[in-house]
Amino acid sequence: MKNYEIGTRVHDHCLNCFSNEQKVVEVVSKEFSDRVVETLWLQCTNCGNLHSRLVQHDR
Ligand SMILES: [Zn+2]
């Protein structure tokens, strides 16, 4: 299972400037019996735009 940590850089598209490098600034995880759902808050390293992305892991 891959964990995301604050400060990690990930490849994801910015909808504002189309840069593809984002930095994780907050991770909110919710645990269910069979999976973990994480909301990643990503900040564009180029323009600073914030957006969120949901990721799921099997437990
Ligand atoms: Zn951007």
From TrEMBL:
This is SR1 protein.
